[in-house]
Each structure stands twice: as structure tokens, then as C-alpha cells.
Amino acid sequence: LVTAAGDGVVSIAPSNAFSVADLVGNVTTTVGGADRSVTVDTVAPTVPTALSLTDVSATGAGLAWVASSDGASGSGVGGYEVGLDISGGVVVVGSVTGVAATLSGLTPSTAYLYRVRAVDVQGNRSAWSDPLGVTTEPAATAPAWLTVACTTSAK
User: What confidence tier does 140 reach under pLDDT thresholds 50, 70, 90?
Assistant: First the structure.
């Protein structure tokens, strides 16, 4: 008999063989005996804070934020997802293991809204951070005073 409480503790009756696997594939196998309890991490990490712009160009930008934590009983923060706000929803556009991300392939002179969320080792996700507005620089153009003339000479 296997029962699960809302606190993430799974209890297994005596003499039942069982194995436990987390979301990243770590497996613990135990065979029969006394009652066993397995604690499963079901708590999301804290929301990343202080999202900031570290660099901006015509086609890219850099983001940074303050690291999340996963609490005393958590499995640990495994990484972060970077999301782009699109029409009221957030679309994941990348993931990183650190507290910074480089965005590339952006359109010059365009405004974007980005958010970040933490993901712990068990796959629990925090809520999205507050949005950060990013406007890319205009595309580089030749100065108005610059003219190019081509001449050919016949021999």
C-alpha cells in the first residue's frame, strides 16, 4: 500500500518492494522490511528578483538577476528559464544554469518584455519574475555625409 500526503511524504506499508525516481533520473531502490517514508520535493524555488539589463545592442541584450533559493528541504535550484511576454502569455525562449542570460537574434529598434523563473532539480518551477522591458538599439547606418562613388576606367 502506498499513500501520499499533501506535504510530499510518501508512506509505504511493510514488506512491499519499491523504488523511487526523481525527475532527473536518480533512482533509489529499497526492498521490504519496516514501514518506509520517502520525502519528495514538491516546493517551488523562490522567484528570481532584481532582473536587470547588463548590455544592449541592435540585435541582442544581456540579462542578470539575483539567485533564487529552494529552502532547507528543497532539492536545490537547477537552473532558470527565460521567458518572453507575448500577448498576455509567457513563452520560454531559453534556459541557463547561472544568473545571467544573453539574448540574440533580436530586431533593431524593438521593445521586448522578458521574465525569468527558477527551476529546482525536481522540476518544480517558481512563479515568473516581474517583467523587464528591453528596447534594442537602432540598426547601424552610414552617416548622411558619406557618399560612395564608383568609377571605372577603360583601357
Answer: confident
Q: Which of 47, 56, 46 is nearest to 131 (CA)?
A: 47
- Cβ atoms of 85 and 113 closer than 8 Å: yes
Q: For residues 2 and 35, is the Cβ–Cβ distance under 8 A?
A: no
Report the residue count for the chain.
155
Q: For 87-125, what is each residue's pLDDT tens digit?
A: 879 999 999 999 999 999 999 999 999 999 999 998 999
Distance of alpha carbon 8 from alpha carbon 35, whole angstroms = 16
Cell numbers representing residue 89 in the block = 502569455
- Closest by alpha carbon to 86, among 53, 114, 61, 65? 114
3-state SS, 73-93, equals: CCCCEEEEEEEEEECCEEEEE
